[in-house]
Design a protein that fits this description.
Blueprint: H1 7-23, E1 30-34, E2 48-52, E3 57-63, H2 77-90, E4 94-98, E5 102-107, E6 113-118, H3 131-154, H4 164-193, H5 195-207, H6 216-245, H7 264-282, H8 286-289, H9 304-317, H10 327-335, H11 338-344, H12 351-361, E7 369-371, H13 378-391, H14 397-402, E8 404-408, H15 411-422, E9 434-437, E10 448-453, H16 458-461, E11 467-471, E12 475-480, H17 492-503, H18 517-526, E13 529-540, H19 547-559, E14 560-568, E15 581-588, H20 592-597, E16 599-605, H21 609-612, H22 619-635, E17 640-641, E18 645-651, H23 652-660, H24 666-672, H25 688-692, H26 696-699, H27 712-715, H28 718-727, E19 731-733, H29 734-737, E20 738-742, H30 749-752, E21 753-756, H31 758-764, H32 768-775, H33 779-783, E22 788-791, E23 797-800, E24 805-808, E25 827-830, H34 843-853, H35 866-869, E26 885-888, E27 890-891, E28 898-899, E29 910-915, H36 921-929, H37 931-936, E30 942-943, E31 950-951, H38 954-959, E32 961-963, H39 970-983, H40 994-998, H41 1022-1035, H42 1042-1069, E33 1074-1075, E34 1078-1079, H43 1082-1091, E35 1112-1117, E36 1122-1124, E37 1135-1138, ...
């Protein structure tokens, strides 16, 4: 039986954990920690004392458990007073108050706290006994806190009282957290026992676009979030009421809770009466004070009354007018955890970023500004502040609000935007923020944008509520941070609607079906912009380099001057986002000549934005600092590089020329490139010529735009541009000198890609009769080599004539050298070009017939799949792409381009490269294997998340700059060929330094600097260096300079891959990712993984494994756990037991399949195959699928934790989540 924790036992545990950690940390200034029973000269105790190495007390603290009265918040007045007194009595320079969830650090003798640290998230003391909570505190929080306090104690880290707004937010959060803890059990109980309450809450959650789950853990998390949100909404209303009351204009009752009021329902009525009076006195703010079902939740439990009383007292202690801007926005930022923000694309924007974008886009005080996805209103609030500074008193609060428009689909976020704008000035008469709570794609200038109170109408004069419609004028500036949602999360119906709305008015415009959500915002917002107006978006940076972004590039070049594109290489611009981001500034321009002549500024920021636009802290100072940096960028006319930034200047005409450059080889134009299509099945650039004929701006260009990698101008190091300036003329896009294609796409790899198990079969079945029974062919023909036994992807085994099998390169995982050797290739490809009549009496024909019966996990038989049915005959893959060079798509640390001497078939997970006729494939292979290409390639690839992997697709590979082998002398070609031959037959290793490869994780890494200390082992090989020298000579580098360029090339390449390795360590470190100061639970990690997991990889049991043509039995399964008897049970081997119900099935295989289906959530009516062999096949396929899925989930989980127990829990959670109960 677990002993319940008390404050004494928990304090003793903490002291023990601190002492154990300190005993191994001689560098820290502390010796140990003890629980003291008495203070000096007093009967009072101090919960915990930390001693320095001289035996003096360095820190003392009071600990209260979160379910105690004083433990509701670490800011509890009595708790702080007691701790302060005890610290003073002990002569201790610092003290803390801690309620387990949050620790507040104070400096003795000072009034305000200096640090607030999140430690855990528990509701009751019983949770302290949970192993994961103990591990989180012992191994995560305690060491981190001691490290931080050591820096403060030594004076290495500055400290002081937190700013007023930070103190307010910390206390506000603490009060609201206490309220949530108090209310949650009641919400959970009512949800379980009150059908009407459950119905209303489910309806509210659906309105928030939350997915309602019956899973207990997910449901508990969602109810907790709903409770938290309900408390925040009421808290915001009270904050706003207090702000209104403190203005001289409105006579409102004091915000207080009468002493006699002790019922929660009565408190709700009391608050609603105050809100009603606020609406009546102000004749405004219905959208802020009105509510609905969710407003009842904060008053469901009587103990909430005292917690709301503490909250109201907190508001009395702070003057809201003195708080910093966007305080409520910071609350919104912390309200939604990182996982939820990521899921819904909601990322809080730093005010400094908003200020810089607004400085570019808002040039005059009367500018009309639109934010199409306002979130909590950061851009709107900062736009208001900028316009106010520019106006210098000439515009009233009402005037400014009339010129600032916001649209936001989230009801709560729209509520916050309105609050943030309204609180800019609570004295002005007309305080009507123009915030539309709507889907931006429903906005139309011809329709009302929103409604505001009508202060002049006759109904208002009679004291009645009245509203007037507000229409959206043409904007001078469109700014914002549109939501980041990947295309997979949009949905087909919404995608079609967004596409229609976005492209309306842009004649001939075409967007890719794979566009992320933010892409649709660009053209729709651009349509609302005046000619000469400015456009500033903070978005995911992926559009700069991927095929869907090329269509956006073309639209931009046709209609805008590109003022600047900015990206930071030292900080994320979305707090909690896992995507690279960039700022894009455009100016609407209908003059093609002016657009062409415009100088585009690609800005790489090398210091945090807060340092680059550092100010004196005043509003005017902030605006002037942003303007100075804006002017610096705009006035730069030549490329400039400093330790703080790099500004690369490029004429806009050059961007168009780069994008129009034909990167297709002669063979591509001859129709041999089956991969020149984009993801919509249309040729890259198709429709562009038609588009150019449809609108005037495009006529100025007159050429097809294919796209270009703009990200390289932001991310490549200075060395790259120096190399390009001097020798770039000798580089050409790979697609100009070679065909680049994906490997074969079979349409069903499970059927066509086979495993040779001939040796295994011969060893397994020595008896000729048993062999023939199992493999359906004579053993002697297999032993003589006339037949091979192969295993298909569904696990079935078949005899096939060897003449129809060829080794196939599935991946480079098993290939460790440049030369592809057949013995390193474990897979075979079925290659049959003969007609069925010519195959009469062959085993391969039997296998083809098998493929025509089976679906291999799909919904239709193999030969009816679109990619198969288009071939004649459908099974003929003999026209597979052929090439000597194999170029990988996804790479990490190793750069290897393989030589396919025998022209083996290559799977579509790889690319096939073949030099144009008359050119040397081997010389091209030398160039592609060079460190020069390894250095350039990542900047033309796309990153896969924030990990070290990069992906080079065909369209990008065609753009990849390589040495122009078509212009080389015969002598240089021969030198390259000889250098390549020397490299052929040894293992190729990674381009990361050994010191980083040897480290297992971030914590074991002593030197965390990416700057090279040494070159990787691969770059020390004489054959590697000889090849790289020849490639640099072929590039045109003078021989006397080659060694110096080679040294710099190795240094820059090593730096890049070192950085990738460090990023990978940090990704692995995400295993201990903190969510508001606590370790993410396995459930949270699993949800995060699922958000990025391709759902098409998951097959449902049994539906996705059944052939519709097969006879099926239908069973009705009751609720409950399924069990079966032993297979050798004479009476019950064919019985399935669920609860008290026994179901007699056809055979044992059907029983086992039914049991497996039940284990993975099947219920209600279930269809199962009649035939025993089919049941066995389904089970076999399911086990193979489950094994592969588990391995993939384990890999993803291991990137986030090394703890085997947690990995297993995460994998189990993932498998449970993707196989939710199915009822029919």
């Amino acid at each position: 039986m677990m002993v319940e924790s008390t404050e004494w036992t928990f304090a003793a545990d903490v002291a023990k954990w601190m002492s154990l950690f300190l005993h191994g940390q001689a560098r820290l200034p502390f010796a140990d920690a003890k629980v003291e029973q008495k203070g000096a000269g007093s009967a009072q105790r101090s919960d915990l004392v930390l001693y320095d190495r001289d035996g003096k007390s360095a820190l003392t603290g009071e600990i209260k458990l979160p379910d105690s009265v004083e433990g509701q918040t670490p800011f509890h007045a009595k708790l702080v007073i007691d701790a302060r007194r005890k610290a003073s009595r002990l002569g201790c320079p610092f003290f803390f108050t801690w309620n387990v969830n949050r620790l507040v650090l104070w400096q003795s003798g000072q009034e305000h706290e200096i640090r607030v640290l999140d430690a855990a998230q528990i509701r009751t003391r019983a949770e302290l006994g949970l192993p994961n909570v103990e591990r989180q505190l012992r191994d995560g929080f305690i060491p981190g806190f001691l490290e931080l306090f050591a820096r403060i104690f030594r004076g290495e880290e500055a400290f002081g009282a937190l700013a007023l707004d930070q103190r307010f937010i910390r206390r506000l959060e603490s009060c609201l957290y206490s309220l949530t803890n108090c209310l949650f059990p009641e919400v959970l109980e009512r949800y379980r026992t009150k059908p009407a309450f459950r119905k209303d809450l489910n309806q509210w959650m659906r309105e928030q676009d939350w997915l309602i789950s019956e899973d207990p853990e997910i449901l508990s998390a969602d109810l907790d979030r709903a409770t938290r949100l309900a408390c925040y909404i009421t808290g915001n209303k009270l904050v706003f009421y207090q702000a209104l009351r403190r203005t001289r204009r409105f006579k409102l009752p004091k915000l207080e809770i009468p002493e006699h009021l002790d019922k929660a329902e009565g408190l709700s009525t009391h608050f609603n009466e105050l809100f009603h009076q606020a609406k009546a006195v102000t004749h405004d703010y219905q959208t802020i004070f009105d509510g609905g079902f969710i407003d009842r939740v904060p008053f469901l439990a009587e103990p909430a009354v005292e917690r709301w009383r503490a909250f109201v007292q907190l508001l009395s202690d702070f003057d809201f007018r003195d708080l910093d801007q966007d305080v409520i926005g910071h609350i919104f930022q912390d309200l939604l955890g990182p996982e939820e923000r990521h899921r819904w694309g909601q990322h809080y924007t730093q005010p400094e970023i908003a200020d810089l974008i607004n400085a570019f886009c808002i040039r005059k005080p009367e500018a009309v500004v639109l934010d199409p996805a306002s979130g909590s209103g950061t851009f709107n609030v900062r736009a208001y502040a900028r316009k106010k500074c520019l106006a210098r008193g000439a515009l009233t609060h009402a005037d400014l609000l009339k010129q600032v428009f916001a649209c936001e689909i989230s009801e709560y976020a729209a509520h916050l935007t309105a609050l943030n704008l309204a609180t800019r000035d609570l004295i002005d008469g007309d305080n009507f923020p123009q915030v539309a709570r709507a889907d931006f794609f429903d906005t139309d200038p011809a329709k009302p944008f929103c409604s505001v109170p009508d202060t002049l109408g006759t109904r208002r004069l009679r004291g009645e509520m009245a509203e007037r419609d507000v229409f959206l004028p043409q904007a001078d500036a469109v700014v914002g941070n549109p939501p980041y949602v990947r295309q997979e999360g949009i949905g087909a119906l919404n995608k079609a609607r967004y596409l229609q709305v976005a492209t309306a008015g842009w004649n001939g415009m075409r967007l890719s079906g794979r566009s992320d959500l933010h892409v649709y915002f660009w053209p729709h917002a651009g349509r609302l912009l005046k000619d000469g107006g400015f456009f500033g978006f903070l978005t995911s940076a992926s559009w700069l380099d991927v095929d869907y972004g090329f269509k956006l590039q073309e639209w931009i070049l046709h209609y805008f001057e590109i003022v600047a594109i900015l990206e930071s290489n030292c900080e994320p611009w979305f707090t909690g986002a896992r995507v690279a981001t960039c700022v894009t500034i455009l100016r609407r321009c209908s003059d093609a000549t002016k657009r062409n002549a415009n100088l585009v500024k690609f800005v790489q920021l090398r210091k945090p934005i807060g340092e680059l636009i550092e100010s004196d802290g005043t509003e005017i100072g902030q605006q002037e600092a942003a303007e100075r940096f804006r002017d610096l960028i705009e006035n730069t006319t030549e490329t400039a590089s400093t330790p703080d930034y790099r500004i690369l200047v490029k004429p806009q005409q050059e961007l168009w020329d780069e994008g129009c450059r034909d990167v297709s080889s002669a063979s591509d134009h001859n129709g041999n490139d089956d991969e020149s299509e984009d993801e919509d099945g249309e040729p890259m650039g198709a429709g562009t010529e038609t588009q150019c004929s449809l609108h005037e701006p495009a006529l100025a260009y007159g050429r097809q735009y294919h796209g270009s990698k703009w990200g390289v101008h932001l991310r490549a190091p200075d060395f790259y541009f120096e190399l390009m300036r001097r020798f770039g003329r000798n580089l050409v896009p790979l697609g100009q000198i070679a065909s680049v294609r994906y490997g074969f796409k079979s349409g069903c790899d499970d059927f066509f890609v086979l495993e040779d198990i001939t040796k295994e079969a011969l060893a397994a079945e020595k008896d000729t009769t048993a062999f023939k029974l199992r493999y359906r062919c004579p053993r002697k023909e297999v032993a003589d080599g006339r037949l091979a036994i192969v295993r298909a992807g569904d696990g079935t085994e078949h005899p096939v004539e060897p003449e129809f099998l060829m080794p196939e390169v599935q991946s480079l995982m098993h290939i460790d050298r440049v030369m592809v050797r057949q013995r390193d290739v474990p897979h075979l490809l079925l290659l049959v070009s003969k007609s069925k009549s010519a195959l009469k009496n062959t085993y391969v024909l039997d296998y083809i017939h098998f493929g025509e019966r089976e679906t291999f996990g799909g919904k239709i038989p193999t030969h009816k799949r679109p990619s198969c049915s288009g071939r004649a005959p459908w099974y003929d893959l003999s026209g597979y792409p052929v090439g000597r060079i194999i170029l990988p798509i996804i790479v990490q640390y190793r750069h290897i381009v393989s030589w396919n001497r025998n022209k083996l078939p290559v799977n579509h997970a790889l690319m096939v490269v073949d030099a144009n006729p008359g050119l040397s494939n081997k010389a091209l292979a030398a160039v592609l294997n060079s460190t020069l290409t390894a250095f350039i390639k990542p900047y033309f690839s796309r990153k896969l998340g924030n990990e070290a992997n990069t992906q080079l697709d065909v369209y990008a590979a065609k753009m990849l700059p390589v040495v122009n082998v078509s212009a080389l002398s015969r002598e240089l070609v021969q030198h390259l060929e000889a250098a390549f031959d020397a490299l052929e037959d040894r293992p190729v290793t990674g381009l990361v330094e050994e010191r980083l490869l040897a480290a297992q994780n971030w914590d074991s890494l002593k030197d965390r600097d990416a700057a090279p200390r040494d070159v990787p082992e691969e770059l020390k090989h004489a054959d590697r260096r000889a090849l790289d020298r020849e490639v640099l000579l072929a590039l045109g580098i003078p021989e006397v300079e080659v060694e110096d360029w080679l040294r710099r090339l190795y240094e820059e390449t090593t730096r890049f891959f070192n950085e990738a390795r460090l990023v990978e360590f940090q990704a692995m470190r995400n295993r201990l990712r903190s969510k508001k100061g606590r370790i993410a639970s396995p459930h949270e990690i699993a949800r995060e993984i699922l958000e990025e997991f391709d759902p098409s990889k998951v097959r449902r049991l049994p539906a996705d494994f059944l052939d519709p043509s097969e006879p099926l039995d239908t069973l009705e399964l009751p609720a409950g756990k399924a069990t079966i008897y032993e297979a050798n049970d004479f009476l019950d081997a064919r019985t399935l037991v669920i609860g008290k119900k026994r179901l007699s099935l056809r055979h044992r295989a059907q029983v086992e399949l039914a049991k497996t289906c039940c284990d993975f959530g099947a219920g209600g009516f279930l269809k199962l195959p009649v035939a025993e062999a089919i049941c066995r096949r389904v089970l076999h396929e399911w086990e193979a699928h489950l094994s592969g899925l588990s391995a993939e989930f384990r890999r993803l989980a291991s990137e986030r934790t090394d703890d085997e127990e947690r990995i297993e829990t995460i994998v189990a959670e993932l498998l449970r989540s993707v196989h939710q109960p199915q009822h029919s």
